[in-house]
Amino acid sequence: MGGVDILHVDDDKGLASLTADLLERKDSRFNVVTAASATEGLQLLSDLSPDCIVSDFEMPGIDGLEFLQAVREKHSKLPFILFTGRGSEEIASDAISAGATDYLQKQSGTEQYELLANRINNAVTRNRSEQKLRETKEEYAAVFENARNGLLLVDVEQDGFRFRRCNSRVLEFTGLAESELIGKTPQEALGYENSRAVAGAYRKCVAMRETITYTVTLTHPVGDVVHEVNTTPIIRDGEVEQLVVAFTDITERHAREQKLREERAVIQQALDALDEPLFVTDIDGRLKHCNHRALELTGNTEETAVGTPITALFPDEERETIADAVDDALRTGRTTITASLCLDSGQQQRYEFRAHSLTDLDNNTAGLVILGQDVSDT
Fold first, then answer.
1. Which segments constitute the Response regulatory domain (predicted)?
2. Read out DSSP for 302-337?
């Protein structure tokens, strides 16, 4: 804990000065400023921003309890210790009810100042910890609410799960009202079919005790939504007590990817319908794709072919020629060469290969497409 600024209010200036001196001797971190009345104390309060107030009870004009009430109107959490020569259970009760942090009766001897110093230290330490916790919670709440992902806090109960909290993105992604979700079980909020998928993932997360990632399609008031989800367990005392569920709506992306997969499937069927072998390479001349005829002739599968240098499909004596042809096609955009393709049977077959360069979206050369035509009978 760093320095502690203390405002001490007491109409007995001699006692106030003595108290300040003894407190600063008891703890070198203490810096005590005195005021001779509650009115002066209130004037100093805004300028000093003290970490703690120590106040007498019986003072002319505004007494200690009235001073406390005035402080609490603007500083609800500021530590306030009533340090008074007049002691009774009634005063102590009134002080605590009015919001005093602590109550201490003045006594003879210097031991009371050590006790007062301890009370101040404890009150300030606790207040700073609580302030830090409040700030952390506020930061967490701001991050939680402003996250781009939908965020759900889910309680893990003995017989299931219950939604504890959500941010506005959850409501946007689902079309649900907060009252339809928070405090509800998955089945109450999402319906039977949706809840089966959701609760199944939650149970898996609890069992594995680690973050799981998955994609799930749920039916919401806004329609069918594809969620990409990360679910993370919160473990306390060895038990999974809550889950943090972060998800985003990838419905449009999923639809685009599905459309792309369908288009690729159609293109692949068209390429596989060719009677001639077709190869696609990268800029290093390694195979990226082959049609069905090319795989059939060479005895490869898609898995064994991908990454293989295209030169490996030709006899040793022709590989340098094939490599030169690949370089020429990458440089000029196209080339034609006749060469012997090594077949799965161990034989060779002459093909005329026409190579054309391929470009990426930035118009950079990305590889070659090579189509062979059987010329063994010519």
1. 5-121
2. HHHHTT-BGGGGS-GGGHHHHHHHHHHHHHHSEEEE
What's the CA gap between 143 and 148, in Å, rounded? Answer: 9
Residues 6+ apart with CB under 8 A from 233: 205, 206, 209, 210, 211, 240, 242, 243
- 12: exposed, middle or buried (Cβ count in 10 Å: 0-12, 13-18, 19+): middle
Q: What is the pLDDT of residues 271-300, one digit of tens each?
A: 788 889 999 999 999 999 999 999 999 999
Orientation of helix 38-48 relative to helix 64-74, angle to 10°: 30
Domains, the chain, in order of start with CATH, read: 4-144 (3.40.50.2300), 147-250 (3.30.450.20), 274-374 (3.30.450.20)
Of 218, 171, 168, the C-alpha closest to 192 is 218
Pairing status of strand 80-84 against strand 52-55: parallel
Residue type, 201: A
- Measured CA to CA, the distance from residue 214 to residue 197 in angstroms comes to 11
In whole angstroms, give the CA distance from residue 308 to residue 287: 5
What residues are paired with 7 via a beta bridge? 33, 53
Residues 6+ apart with CB under 8 A from 213: 228, 229, 230
Task: Give this prediction's pTM.
Answer: 0.48
